Amino acid sequence: MGTLIFAHRGSSVREPENTLVSFQRAEQEGADGIELDVQMTKDGELVVIHDETVNRTTNGKGFVKDFTYVELTQLRIVDKKNKRIFPRSGERIPTLSEVFRWLKTTNLLCNIELKNSVIFYPNLEERVVQEVKDFGLEDRVVYSSFNHDSLAHMLRIDPHAETAVLYKEILHQPWKYVQSFGARGIHPSWKSLTQDVLLETIENGIAVRPYTVNRRLVMEQLFRLQCTAIFTDDPLKAKNVYASLNL
Residue 143's closest CA among 134, 135, 159? Predict the structure, then answer.
């Protein structure tokens, strides 16, 4: 089937990350899937945003957990690095259900990162699983987190869920680690992933999806090794690189 391409927070090199327009752009550019981050508001709404605070990606300040959803909708998405403001109505912090409603109209896969490593969100796993089931997306979703206890809990809630461990540093024999509690994939930083670990992990039936792969040379190496998938900020570039290799 070849290496799948997941758009990291959508096509985030061209559109504001974790917004509907970014996910829609990723589909237009030929991505196989999208990656998004889920947190919870003060009033229990599941929202799609990466940072624990709104400081970097909006014109507001404060922790996501301290806003109601209505208050979050009043914030404008901004790109502070490039000093841009995105006024279009679709470019705001979306709810998970809004993304799923659109996702149902596509064939895209979806990686959901549970953002519960810094802040504990009560029943986040239960809420996300129920939302996935409500939209009938069970077969198109992978759950990941840096909080591996959360992934183990996810599997207790739904033994059929596909989970993958996120990690940044080198992990010894990661295929054994994930098999120990039933996860089916690893999502390492590409910088910590060696060719030997990649190949042996796949040989042991565990998916390998490194993040965040934006360099052409790294893309080429992973594609040639038939890595399961990659996460990239630039799905269009990745699709073009893959096509150029004639694999």
Answer: 159
**pLDDT band at 91; cut points 50, 70, 90:** confident
pLDDT at 92: 87
Task: Look at strands 4-8 and 229-232 and give their pairing.
Answer: parallel
CA Rg, the chain, in Å?
A: 17
What confidence score (pLDDT) does residue 247 get?
85
56/79 Cα distance (integer angstroms): 8
Is 148 one of the catalytic residues? no
Binned at pLDDT 50, 70 and 90, residue 88 comes out as low
Q: Is the pLDDT of residue 146 over 80?
A: yes
Residue type, 90: G
Tokens representing 22 are: 């970014």
pLDDT value at position 78? 83
List of residues 6+ apart from 82 with CB closer than 8 A: none
Sign of CA dihedral 79, 80, 83, 85: positive
Tell me the pLDDT band of 11, cut-offs 50, 70 and 90: very high
Catalytic residue among 50, 148, 153, 187: 50
Q: Does the annotation count 187 as an active-site position?
A: no
Q: What is the 3-state secondary structure (H, E, C) of 4-37?
A: EEEEECCCCCCCCCCCHHHHHHHHHCCCCEEEEE
Do 5 and 232 meet the contact criterion of CB atoms below 8 Å apart?
yes
Euclidean distance between CA atoms 193 and 191, whole angstroms: 6
Check 8, 148, 153, 160 and give the catalytic one.
8
Q: What's the angle, vertex CA 178, arms to CA 118 and CA 122, rounded to 5?
A: 30
Distance CA 40, CA 129 (A): 14
